[in-house]
Amino acid sequence: MKIKPKLFILVIICLLSSCKHKESGYHNLKEKIEEESKHYQDPGISSEVYIGDIETIEITEGEHTFLIPERKSQLKSYACTECHSKPLSELQQARDQQQAHWEIKIKHANSQTMNCATCHNPGDMNHLNSLAGIEIDFNQSYRLCAQCHSSQFEDWKGGAHGKNIGGWANPRAAMSCVNCHNPHEPQIASKWPVRFNTQKEMERK
Amino acid sequence: METIKAFMSMVKDSLGYITHGSRTYHIWMIFLTVIMLIGMYCYSIQLDEGLSVTGMTDRVSWGLYISNFTFLVGVAAAAVMLVMPTYVLHDIDFKQAVLIGEGLAVAALIMCLAFVVADMGGPSVLWHMIPGIGVFNFPNSMLAWDVIVLNGYLFINISIPLYILFRHYQGKEAKASVYIPGSILSVLWAVGIHLVTAFLYEGLQARPFWNNALLGPRFLASAFAAGPALIILVLAAIRKFSEFRIEDKTIKKIAMIVTVAAQINLIMLISELFKEFYAPTHHSESAYYLFFGLEGKTALLPWIWTAIPLNILATVLLTFHKLRNNLNVLYFCCFILFVAIWIEKGFGLIVPGFIPGPYGKIAEYTPTWIEIWVTLGIWALGAFIFTMLAKTSIGIELGKLRYRKKEVLDSESV
Amino acid sequence: MAEKKKWFQLDLGLSKAQGSGSCGCGKDSGDCGSHSDHPDKEYRLTAEEFDAAVEKELMGETAVSQTQKDGFQQVFDVKMDRRTAFRKLTASLLVGAGAVHTSCSLTAGNETKEKAQIDWEEQFKGNYKLMTKEEKQATVDRLVRSYQLRKKKNIKMSSADASKDVLFGYAFNISKCQGYMNCVSACVEENNQDRNSQMQYIRIHEMKDGEGFKFNEADDNYYHEVPAEGHFYMGTQCFHCDNPPCVNVCPVEATWREEDGLVVIDYDWCIGCRYCMAACPYDGRRFNWSKPEVPEDEVNKNQHYLGNRMRKKGVMEKCTFCVQRSRAGKDPACVEACPTGARIFGNLLDPDSTIRWVLENKQVFRLKEDLGTEPKFWYFMD
C-alpha cells in the first residue's frame, strides 16, 4: 500500500507534463496576426512572372495602387474614330455600308436609366464619358462603373471584389470590371457545373 | 543457469502439452486455424487492394476493426476485477480464476493490437511509431498514450502469470513480495487502458457524440460488465472440458461484479439518453440516427434495438439473487449481456460518431465480407492464444506439468 | 471491373457465382484471349512454374516489387495479382535481404540496382518535418530520379520551406460563388488526386436562401444549371486551422503546421490510422482507400514534396493551399480557376494585402468558431 502515493505522484506528473504546448502566447489568431505583422518585412516573393502575357497598366485609386489589364489594345477595332468619322445619324442612314454593333443588346439596368449615350460620347467615340460629361479613357472604364456601383468599387479597390491575376504576392494585379462583365450585359450567365462526382453519389445511397 | 534450464524445460513441456489433447481439443484448434487462415487470406487481399475492400469510406472512416478494438480493450481491462480481490485483498476465492482472467487479458490485448494493425493504411510503416526509431507524438496524441498503455498492460499481464506459473512449475510457491506490486500496478493500469481508450474518442471536438464526459466512466462500467461476463462463460467451458475445478462460489462472486457493473452501466445509459432526447440539440443528431434513424437511413436500428432490450433483460435478471444463483440463468445472462455490450460499445459507439458527418451528410456503413472475415480471423486468433495459455496454466496448476530436475540431467548426459 | 470482382469472389461458400461461368482469367465478360497481357494470366501457371517464378523473383526483382508495396505505389505502378498478394505475406521479410542482394548483385542491371537502392533508402528515411535541408533535398532527388527510372519522364519537385513573414489566409465570398465548380476541377488536376475514387478536396454546398447555414440540407453534389434560383453556394476545404486538432492527434507527427500556417502531411511517414480524419471538424481530410491513379498525360509534373506529389495507397492527403504554387508566389489553383472572384488568397501578415483588407473591412466569419480551432479561412458577403 506504500507504493500508491508514489504512483499517484507519477500519474500527476504525467498529466501535468502532457498539457498541450502552445508555442505562442497569443490569445487568438487575430491578436497573433496583428502582433506579428507589426514587424512585417517583405518576404521577397514576387508574383510578377505569373501575370504572363497580359499587358497591364498601373492605377492608383485612393490609397490603393495596383495593376489592371490594359484595355484598348484588346478592343477589336480601336480607335473607334476609324469608322465613327461621321456623326451617328449619318452612319445609320448610309445603307450601303456594313452594319456594325448589331449584336449588342443593352441589358443593363433599364432603358430609363441607361442607353448608349450614358457611357459613350457620340461626339468623341474614342473616349467614354461620365454622367457629368467628363471624358474617361477606355483603360479606366472602371470609373464609369463606379458612378453607380460604388460599393462594388470600394470592394474592388480593396480586393474583395474581382479576380486576382497571377499570384498573391506583389505586385498586385486584378481584373478590371470589363474583364469579367460585359458592360452591355453585365449579368453573368448561368451554366452547368464543371464536374459531377458519381462516386460520392454512390456512397450516399 | 538452473533457472534458465527450468524455463527452457517449461517452454518445452508446455509446447508438448498444448500439441496433445483430446479429440474435441484438436477439432477446436483445427477449426480456429481454418478461420484464421481465411482471415489471413482476406487480409492479404486487403493489403493488396487497400482499405477500399472494406465498407469504410471518407464519411465513416472507422468501422468494424476499431469497434472490436474498443470493445476488447474493455475485456482486457476487466481481468483486473479478478486480480484485485485475489492478490491485493487476499480473497482466496479467485485464485483459480485469476490466471484464466489474465490469460484472457493477454488474448484480448493481442486481438486489440491485431485489430489496430488491420485498420492501418500502411502496416509496413508501423515502425514509425516505435519510440527511438520513429517519431512518437507523446504526450499530445491520445493514440500514442494508448500504444504505451496497451503494450505496458500486455507486458504486465504476461509477466505476472508467467512468474506465478514458473514458480508453480518448479514446485515452489510464488513470492507475494514479487507479484503484489505488479498486481497493484496492473490494477491501476487496467483502469488506465480503458480511460485512455475512452479519451481517444472523448477528446475529439469534431464528434459531439463522443465528446462527452460520461464516455470514460461508461467505458469502465460496460467493460467491467462484459469482461467478467466473458470470464464466467470461459470458466463454465473450462469446468466442462477440463479437470480444473472451479467452485460455484467463485463464479457467483464474479457474477456479483457483473451485476453491479451492469447496473451502473444502465444508469449511465439512462442519463445519456435523457440528455440526448429531453433537450435535443444539433449535437443529438448522432443519437437520433442510432436509435431512430435519420432521413430514412436506418442501418443501425436492428443492432441497437437488439442490444438495448438484451442489456435491460440481463441486468434485470441478474439483479434477482435467486435467478443469478441459478447457473444456467447466469450463463444465459452473461451471454446476452456480452452480446449487448459488444454491439453497444462497438458498432453502436463508433459508427454513429461519424454519422452525420461534419457537414451533416449521411453515408451509411456496412462491413464487407472481407472485413467480417478478417474480424473473425482475429477473434479466432484470440481464442487460439487463449486456449493455449489456459491449457498450459491449467496443466501447471493441476500439477501435470512439473519440472523434473533429475530427468533433464539424465537426458543431457545421454 | 476485374479488380472489383476480386473481393466479391471471396465470399467463397457464401456466394455461388464464383467459378461457375466465368473463365479462369478473372474476367467475367469477353474472352480470355482478348486480354492476354493481363497480369491475371499468372493464375494459370502450374505449381512448378509458380515456384520457379517465386524463386526468380526472390533472387532478383522482388526487392523492387516488394519495397514498392511500402514505397510510393503511385510512382512505381506495379501490377499486382492474387499470387503476389499471397507471396507478400511471407516474402515481406525478405524485402531487405532482397534489396541488399540486388544492389550487390553483379548480374542485375545498373538501373535495377539503382531502383533497389532508392527504394531501400526511401523505405527507411525519416520524418520530413525533422529532416535537415540536405536530407530534404536528397529525398526529393530520389523521388525525381525514381520517377525518371520508372516512367522515363521528368518531374520537377520542390522542397521549398516556409518563408519568414508569411502566414497564408483565405477568404471566400458567399455572395459571389455561383457554384460552377471550376475550382473543384482545377484542384483535382493541379493536385494529382485519384481519378478512380474521384477524390476532391473542395466541396461546394448548395444552400437555400433564407434558411441560414443548414449544411445537412445542403446539396454538395448537385448537377443542374447554376446558380439555381433561390440558392447560394458555399465552398469548404481544409481550413488550415491555426490550432489544428488533426495535428494534435497524429501519433507519429506525420502531419504538422508549417511556419507559414499551412497544415501539411508527409505522405511517406503517415501510417494511415485515420485518427486525424476523425478529429477534423471540417471534413478537410481525405484517405487513399485504394491505390491512387492518375493517367500519365494528366499528371501535373510541377510538384512539391508536401503538396501534389504522387501519393500511395493507405495514406491521408488534403488541401495544402497548393503549396507548390503558393510558396512560389502564385495563387492556389482554385483561386486561379474561379471565374467569379469569390476566392481571395494572400499573406495575413502583410498589412497591405487584399486578404487583410477583406478581414478588416468586410463582415467575416468562420465555421464552428466555438471549437477553438482558429481556421485561417474566412467567409464574407458583399
UniProtKB/TrEMBL annotation, chain A:
Give the UniProt keywords, A-Z. Answer: Electron transport, Heme, Iron, Metal-binding, Signal, Transport
Name the InterPro entries on file.
Answer: Cyt_c_III_dom (IPR020942), Multihaem_cyt_sf (IPR036280), Multiheme_Cytochr_ET (IPR051829)
Q: Which SUPFAM superfamilies match?
A: Multiheme cytochromes (SSF48695)
Which PROSITE patterns does this one have? PROKAR_LIPOPROTEIN
Q: Which domain of life is it from?
A: Bacteria
State the signal peptide span. none
All copies of domain Class III cytochrome C, residue ranges: 96-190
For this chain, one GO molecular function annotation is: metal ion binding
UniProt protein name:
Cytochrome C
Q: Which organism is it from?
A: Poritiphilus flavus
From TrEMBL, chain B:
Its keywords, alphabetically, are: Cell membrane, Membrane, Transmembrane, Transmembrane helix
The transmembrane segments are 27-46, 66-87, 99-122, 142-166, 178-199, 219-238, 250-270, 300-320, 329-352, 372-396
Compartments, as annotated in UniProt? Cell membrane
Bilayer topology reads: Multi-pass membrane protein
GO cellular component, alphabetical, reads: plasma membrane
Q: Which InterPro entries is this protein grouped with?
A: DsrP-like, NrfD-like
Q: Which family does it belong to?
A: Belongs to the NrfD family.
UniProt-recorded name of the protein: Polysulfide reductase
In its UniProt entry, the species of origin is given as Poritiphilus flavus
Automatic annotation (TrEMBL), chain C:
- Sequence ranges assigned to domain 4Fe-4S ferredoxin-type in this UniProt record: 261-290
One Pfam assignment: Fer4_11
Q: Does the keyword Iron apply?
A: yes
Please list the GO terms describing molecular function: 4 iron, 4 sulfur cluster binding; metal ion binding
User: What keyword terms does UniProt attach to this protein?
Assistant: 4Fe-4S, Iron, Iron-sulfur, Metal-binding
Q: Is Cytoplasm set as a keyword in this record? A: no
Q: Which domain of life is it from?
A: Bacteria
Show the PROSITE patterns listed in the entry: 4FE4S_FER_1, 4FE4S_FER_2
Which PANTHER family does this UniProt record tie to the protein? PROTEIN NRFC, PROTEIN NRFC HOMOLOG
Protein name, per record: 4Fe-4S dicluster domain-containing protein
Question: Species name for this entry?
Answer: Poritiphilus flavus
